[in-house]
């Protein structure tokens, strides 16, 4: 497939290094708050890349997606909450896992936390290797990376070397491109901050060091195949990851760098600091389903900004409905037989879909191919020009589309899940029977009514009471 590589600023043919396995690292969530749908735009686009590599191209994928559980923001958050750092970040990791499942993200092979013992050890090893290669110095108890010792520094962000200030240091985890300076690898111990002694002097890791150490530890020999994240990570985070990893190993760190553009709201990046974020529970509280969010976030090309509005989410809901309505109509076809023109039409849609996905993950064009097919299939159903033999072929094609996009299966899983927990429904059915036995029909009706309002219908028949989703 063709994949845009930020390192070369061009689309290139992608194939993994030796073997059939793609080794990929994604910068995961900084766990000081529940992830918002802007974060999830990046994670969903990377999930679509993962699925394309696996199901469309037949590669194996080994993916690492970390949790940044120690940095400036998590430390401040834990201090404010009066909690121990790990207990504080645990909460947001649990929420991330819940939202990731609701959005149909495939589980990746490894989800390390920076504060895991083995990762801190890997960070200490990395600092030692950088020290040995002459890339570090200590100042005021912190360890810094000296960028003048690495002539390639700036190759990802295309930095102007003139603008770099020799000897100037920056301690913050995040800063602007104009501030290309020696960056901190390991921060000196401060009162009320967690401290580790794996490194001398004791302290805590800088954000950039964490990702390099986890990628090198869990993905094996450099170079890895793909490193991914949101576009805001190009500088300084990814530039510094390259400096650390290549400074230590002397080898290329990652062959491809994939960056997802922003989800924006009224011309501004969706971000916690601007206060314009929505989480999955926020969206669900407004009556939308996670499957519609997934659909919306993957419907635009990942290298284009996507403007979030409630109207666009309603549009996604309608598009998804159109897709599932067509599948339901196909399910109702009873006439036997097959039509060669239907088979040919489906094959054409499949090639268009595959071509679009191989063209730097052009999801917008891939969805276009699916909806043209939906339109033609609806016409064919109207004209009674579809038989059950065709339906089998069509369903197989839609299954293939959905292994990559993951929206229809997500919606079906949502449909299968009752809006009220099954144990509660069963208890209420029992209560209703009890009310009837004591001839309190008003109470029995109230239970039926309440459940109906919550989206569950009860049906009485000779063998008892059954429930179904409204
Ligand atoms: P953070 O928790 O800030 O480290 O971000 C986690 C991931 O979400 C990173 O890959 C970010 O680049 C990405 N991200 C943050 N905000 C947005 C946004 N508005 N649109 C797309 N990706 C984002
Ligand atoms: Zn990272």
Secondary-structure topology with pairs:
Elements: E1 2-5, E2 10-13, E3 21-26, H1 37-56, E4 60-65, H2 72-81, H3 85-102, H4 117-132, E5 136-139, E6 142-145, E7 169-170, E8 182-188, E9 203-205, H5 207-219, E10 224-230, H6 234-249, E11 254-260, E12 263-265, E13 268-269, H7 280-285, H8 290-299, E14 306-307, H9 310-331, H10 340-358, H11 363-382, H12 388-405, H13 408-416, H14 422-437, H15 441-453, E15 456-461, E16 464-469
Parallel strand pairs: 3-4, 3-10, 7-8, 10-11, 12-14
Antiparallel strand pairs: 1-2, 5-6, 6-8, 8-9, 12-13, 15-16
The structure holds adenosine monophosphate (AMP) and zinc ion.
Query: Could you list the spans in which at least 5 consecutive residues all have pLDDT below 50?
Result: none
Give the N-terminus to C-terminus distance in angstroms: 43 Å
CATH class of the largest domain: Alpha Beta
Structural Rg: 26 Å
Shape designation = globular
Query: How many distinct domains?
Result: 3
Architecture per CATH nomenclature, i.e. the level-2 architecture of the largest domain: 3-Layer(aba) Sandwich
- What is the average of the pLDDT values? 95
Reported by name, the CATH topology of the largest domain is Rossmann fold
Secondary structure class reads: alpha/beta
Count of helical segments? 15
Corresponding CATH superfamily of the largest domain: HUPs
- Structure ligands: adenosine monophosphate, zinc ion
Main sheet: strands, sense, barrel: 5 strands, mixed
**What is the count of β-strands?**
16
């Amino acid at each position: 497939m063709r994949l845009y590589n930020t390192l070369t600023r061009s689309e290139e043919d992608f194939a993994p290094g030796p073997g059939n396995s793609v080794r990929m690292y994604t910068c995961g969530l900084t766990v000081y708050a529940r992830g918002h749908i802007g974060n999830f735009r990046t994670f969903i686009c990377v999930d679509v890349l993962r699925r394309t590599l696996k199901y469309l191209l037949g590669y194996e994928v080994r993916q690492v997606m970390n949790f940044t559980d120690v940095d400036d923001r998590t430390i401040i958050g834990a201090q404010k909450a009066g909690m121990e750092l790990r207990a504080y970040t645990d909460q947001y990791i649990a929420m991330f896992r819940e939202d990731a499942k609701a959005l149909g993200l495939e589980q990746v092979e490894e989800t390390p936390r920076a504060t895991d013992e083995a990762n801190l050890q890997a960070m200490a090893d990395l600092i030692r290797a950088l020290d040995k290669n002459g890339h570090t110095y200590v100042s005021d108890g912190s360890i810094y990376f000296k960028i003048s010792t690495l002539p390639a520094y700036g190759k990802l962000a295309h930095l102007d070397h003139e603008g770099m200030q020799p000897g100037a240091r920056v301690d913050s985890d995040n800063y602007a491109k104009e501030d290309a300076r020696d960056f901190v690898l390991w921060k000196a111990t401060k009162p009320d901050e967690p401290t580790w002694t794996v490194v001398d002097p004791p302290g805590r890791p800088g954000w950039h060091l964490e990702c390099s150490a986890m990628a090198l530890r869990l993905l094996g020999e450099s170079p890895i195949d793909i490193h991914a994240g949101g576009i805001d990570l190009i500088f300084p985070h990814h530039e510094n990851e390259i400096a650390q990893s290549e400074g230590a190993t002397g080898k290329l760190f990652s062959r491809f760098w994939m960056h997802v553009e922003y989800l924006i709201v009224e011309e501004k990046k969706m971000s916690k600091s601007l206060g314009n974020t929505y989480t999955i529970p926020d969206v669900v509280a407004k009556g939308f389903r996670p499957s519609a969010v997934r659909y919306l976030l993957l419907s635009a090309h990942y290298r284009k900004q996507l403007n979030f509005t409630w109207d666009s989410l309603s549009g996604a809901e309608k598009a998804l409905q159109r897709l599932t309505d067509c599948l339901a109509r196909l399910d109702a076809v009873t006439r036997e037989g097959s039509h060669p023109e239907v088979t040919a039409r489906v094959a054409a849609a499949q090639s268009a879909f595959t071509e679009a996905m191989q063209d730097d993950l052009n999801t917008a064009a891939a969805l276009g191919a699916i909806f043209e097919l939906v339109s033609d299939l609806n016409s064919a159903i109207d004209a009674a020009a579809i038989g059950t033999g065709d339906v089998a072929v069509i369903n197989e094609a839609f299954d293939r589309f959905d292994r990559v996009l993951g929206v229809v299966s997500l919606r079906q899983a949502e449909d299968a899940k009752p809006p009220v927990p099954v144990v509660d429904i069963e208890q209420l059915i029992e209560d209703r029977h009890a009310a009837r036995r004591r001839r309190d029909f008003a109470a029995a009706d109230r239970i039926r009514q309440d459940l109906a309002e919550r989206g569950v219908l009860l049906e009485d028949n000779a063998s008892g009471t059954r429930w179904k989703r409204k």
